[in-house]
């Protein structure tokens, strides 16, 4: 018999958040911290470390939402194909963890209240929450990173090549160790597979950071 989650049996909530990616996770976290009776609804499954698909010869085996509710939902639009994640943690499960702050030039032409200076404190908070850190250079980088650096050299753009700060756990954590929110996480192995789901458990996703902070159904 299927066990109906307790929150589905209730008739009333003060707030209902749809989706558990960065937008939904941050919203539900702050609402719960403010004492609001809130629930979160997510269509996708939970993807613990080690469960993300890797066999590209079997796109029906965990890759596509259209096939057994897999990780990626492809949505054809007029001129583009939009691909989004379906899972507990939303897009934070498959983004590349890059934490680059937009330069002021990006905001030129925007309304006056929106500027780099205006966003600085919010950048700081997000960086703190996600444990954003520079990529340690004391280990050998993946071959793809070395090849990119070599290509930049050959093209005369070495000055523009850099390793961005990442929302990744680089600490040397072994099995059974947890982050500051009590969620099991291991240290990055530099496999370079951040954007297809981290099977190591080093990605600082919404499910590892924001959701554990608040008792939400």
TrEMBL record:
Domain of life of the organism encoding this protein: Bacteria
Matching InterPro entries: Cholesterol_Oxidase, FAD/NAD-bd_sf
SUPFAM superfamilies (alphabetical): FAD/NAD(P)-binding domain
GO MF annotations, alphabetized: oxidoreductase activity
Cofactor: FAD
Keyword tags: FAD, Flavoprotein, Oxidoreductase
Pfam families (UniProt xref): NAD_binding_8
Family to which the UniProt record says this protein belongs: Belongs to the GMC oxidoreductase family.
Protein name: Choline dehydrogenase-like flavoprotein
Organism (species): Catenuloplanes indicus
Lineage of the species this protein comes from: Bacteria, Bacillati, Actinomycetota, Actinomycetes, Micromonosporales
């Amino acid at each position: 018999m299927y066990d109906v989650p307790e929150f589905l049996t209730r008739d009333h909530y003060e707030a209902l958040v749809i989706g558990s990616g960065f937008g939904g996770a941050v919203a539900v976290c702050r609402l719960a911290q403010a004492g609001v009776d809130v629930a979160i609804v997510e269509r996708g499954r939970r993807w613990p470390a080690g469960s993300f698909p890797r066999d590209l010869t079997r796109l029906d085996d965990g890759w596509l939402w259209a096939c057994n509710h897999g990780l990626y939902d492809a949505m054809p639009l007029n001129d583009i194909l939009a691909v989004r994640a379906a899972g507990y943690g939303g897009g934070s499960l498959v983004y590349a963890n890059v934490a680059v702050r937009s330069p002021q030039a990006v905001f030129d032409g925007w309304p006056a209240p929106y500027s780099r200076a205006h966003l600085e404190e919010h950048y700081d908070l997000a960086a703190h929450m996600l444990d954003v850190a520079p990529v340690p250079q004391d280990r050998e980088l993946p071959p793809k990173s070395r090849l990119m650096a070599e290509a930049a050299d050959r093209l005369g753009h070495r000055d523009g090549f850099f390793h961005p700060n990442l929302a990744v756990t680089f600490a040397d954590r072994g099995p059974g160790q947890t982050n500051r929110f009590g969620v099991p996480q291991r240290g990055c192995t530099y496999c370079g597979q951040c954007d297809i789901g981290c099977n190591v458990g080093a990605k600082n996703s919404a499910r590892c950071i924001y959701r554990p902070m608040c008792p939400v159904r």
